[in-house]
Amino acid sequence: MLSKKQAKAFFLAGSLVTFFIFIGLTVFSLSKSQDQSNSENITAEVARGKHIWEKNNCMGCHTIMGEGAYYAPELTNVIERRGEVYVKTVLMSKTPWAPRGRKMVAYAMSEQDANDVIAFFKWIGDINLNGFEKVDRTVSPLAKDKMKN
Ligand code: HEC
After folding, report:
1. Which of 20, 61, 86, 116 has the fewest beta carbons closer than 10 A?
2. Does ligand 1 come within 6 angstroms of the Cβ of 137?
3. One domain for residues 75 and 94
4. What is the CATH number of the domain that holds 112?
């Protein structure tokens, strides 16, 4: 059984050790080698694409990196999956794009806007996501059993 003094010392030592572990992990998380955000590749085009993404509430139907609504396909690596020409066609279409039944909004985007959104998707697609992008989300954003490895 610990005396009151020993218990106090145990508490203080334990707090100090965990505090320094916490500081160490914080420094490690914020170190350059752990940076996976790909932020050096954010161009003006990427920023405009992100703005279009926000303004039109694309997340009201789609997910990106798993965030958003589960009505429409996950778009994190849509450029790799579909190719630029396909994505551009979807964005510039004047009639709702719906080969699989559910309807995409007919944004009829200008070529410039479509290119900006594509630049945004490419930037997202280059982020290191620790394997998240390997899940086939064309079926459902929750389709974990469809891992390609
Ligand atoms: C009202 C819901 C809705 C909104 C809002 C929406 N989408 Fe879609 N989108 C869909 C649906 C549904 C599909 C799938 C259509 C199909 O393949 O049949 C789709 C398909 C797509 C595709 C092709 C994906 C693939 O894997 O084939 C892209 C790219 C896309 N949307 C981009 C966007 C962008 C960018 C925005 C915002 C500017 C947006 N969407 C807003 C519903 C939506």
Report:
1. 20
2. no
3. yes
4. 1.10.760.10
Only one residue has tokens 């004047």, namely 94
User: Amino acid letter at 69?
Assistant: A
User: What atom in ligand 1 is closest to the CA of residue 87?
Assistant: 29
By three-state DSSP, how is residue 42 classified? coil
Based on the fold, state whether residues 67 and 140 are members of the same structural domain: yes
Judge if 31 and 104 occupy the same domain.
Answer: no
- Write out the residue range of the structural domain in which residue 18 sits: 1-35
pLDDT value of residue 16:
98
pLDDT of residue 145: 55
CB of 97 within 6 A of ligand 1: the answer is yes
Other C-beta atoms lying within 10 Å of the C-beta of residue 58: 20
> What's the number of domains the chain is made of?
2
- Ligand 1: centre distance to CA 100 (Å): 11
Residues 4, 29, single domain; the answer is yes
Q: Which segments in the chain show pLDDT lower than 50?
A: 149
Distance CA 141, CA 74 (A): 6
Nearest CA to ligand 1 atom 15: 98
**Minimum CA distance residue for ligand 1 atom 6:** 58
pTM check: above 0.90: no
